[in-house]
């Protein structure tokens, strides 16, 4: 029996180097994919509480809903374990990949997907800044990730980095009008009320709770319009009923007068004949 082309080390799981992957059979690739963990150890990726979770989830959901609504094929996820060929795994707070199908995934394996990440956003809340502001800046550039943004929540600032064509290190993204432009997303990033906010031109991308509030307002307006229309219809029906009643009474009076007039004519004719 031949030795496996690649064995995943449980202590340091990695996807095979590119040249190894290319030599592997489909069955061997499937076996490796199945054995790559889809989670991160807590010591490497500790939970950071609501201050970290809320801006991450709100930003992720706003992006997903926006691209879904405009029909653009952009996969957006968060806390997704990512494997580059031969590299230690990592788990970005938010990631985006353009021109791929948006379906559920357990991990992003570059060799399997045929494409690396196009954008990463990390959210810094507290503690040592080395990982987000130094280590990742070097590492993500080396991996060829076109754009990298860090939301420094305590400082209320965004730091942006972009790879120029053919470059091996990032250039800083210069804010314009208080916003950072993402060429990958076609959106601008800014900070509002301690949250990461995206803009499409002059229009902000609404968070899901804002969308729900907006929909609730629209529903309330529709209900009020319906109730008003029902009230108006009832009032018009009542007026029509009253008009019909008055018309009926007028008709009865007219009939009574006609009958009385006819009786008087008959009496006059009788008297004349006498």
TL;DR?
The protein is α+β, with helices and mostly antiparallel strands and 274 residues long. It has helices spanning 18-23, 26-35, 50-70, 110-113, 130-143, 208-273; strands at 74-77, 82-83, 94-98, 108-109, 119-124, 147-152, 157-163, 170-172, 180-182, 187-192, 195-200, 203-204. Helix content is 44%, strand content 19%.
Structure explained in plain terms:
With 274 residues, the chain is of the alpha+beta class. The chain folds into two domains: 18-205, Alpha-Beta Complex (tt1808, chain A); 207-274. 44% of the residues lie in helices and 19% in strands. The chain has six helices and twelve strands. The chain has helices at 18-23, 26-35, 50-70, 110-113, 130-143, 208-273; strands spanning 74-77, 82-83, 94-98, 108-109, 119-124, 147-152, 157-163, 170-172, 180-182, 187-192, 195-200, 203-204. It has a six-stranded mixed sheet, with helices on both faces. The chain has a four-stranded antiparallel sheet with strand order 9-10-11-12, covered by helices on one side. The longest helix has 66 residues, at 208-273. The radius of gyration is 36 Å and the shape is elongated. The termini are far apart. The mean pLDDT is 89.
List keywords for this structure.
elongated, six-stranded mixed β-sheet, single chain, about 270 residues, 2 domains, alpha+beta, 6 helices, tt1808, chain A
Write the layout of secondary structure elements.
Blueprint: H1 18-23, H2 26-35, H3 50-70, E1 74-77, E2 82-83, E3 94-98, E4 108-109, H4 110-113, E5 119-124, H5 130-143, E6 147-152, E7 157-163, E8 170-172, E9 180-182, E10 187-192, E11 195-200, E12 203-204, H6 208-273
């Amino acid at each position: 029996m031949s030795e496996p082309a690649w064995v995943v080390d449980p202590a340091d799981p990695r996807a095979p180097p590119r040249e190894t992957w290319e030599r592997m059979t489909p069955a061997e690739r499937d076996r490796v994919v199945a054995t790559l963990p889809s989670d991160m150890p807590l010591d490497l990726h500790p939970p950071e509480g609501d201050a970290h979770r809320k801006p991450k989830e709100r930003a992720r959901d706003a992006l997903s809903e926006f691209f879904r609504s405009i029909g653009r094929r952009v996969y957006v996820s968060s806390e997704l374990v990512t494997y580059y060929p031969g590299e230690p795994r990592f788990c970005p707070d938010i990631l985006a990949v353009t021109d791929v199908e948006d379906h559920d995934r357990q991990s992003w394996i570059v060799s399997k997907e045929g494409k690396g990440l196009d954008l990463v956003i990390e959210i810094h809340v507290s503690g040592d800044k080395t990982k987000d502001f130094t280590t990742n800046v070097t590492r993500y550039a080396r991996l060829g990730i076109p754009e990298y943004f860090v939301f420094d929540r305590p400082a209320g600032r965004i730091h942006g980095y972009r790879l120029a064509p053919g470059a091996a290190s990032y250039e800083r993204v210069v804010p314009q009008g208080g916003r950072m432009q993402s060429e990958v997303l076609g959106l601008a990033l800014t900070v509002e009320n301690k949250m990461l906010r995206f803009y499409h031109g002059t229009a902000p991308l609404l968070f899901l709770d804002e969308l729900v509030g907006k929909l609730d307002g629209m529903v309330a307006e529709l209900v009020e319009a319906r109730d008003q229309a029902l009230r108006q219809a009832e009032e018009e029906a009542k007026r029509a009923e009253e008009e019909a009643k008055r018309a009926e009474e007028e008709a009865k009076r007219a009939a009574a007068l006609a009958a009385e007039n006819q009786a008087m004519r008959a009496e006059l004719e009788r008297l004349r004949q006498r």
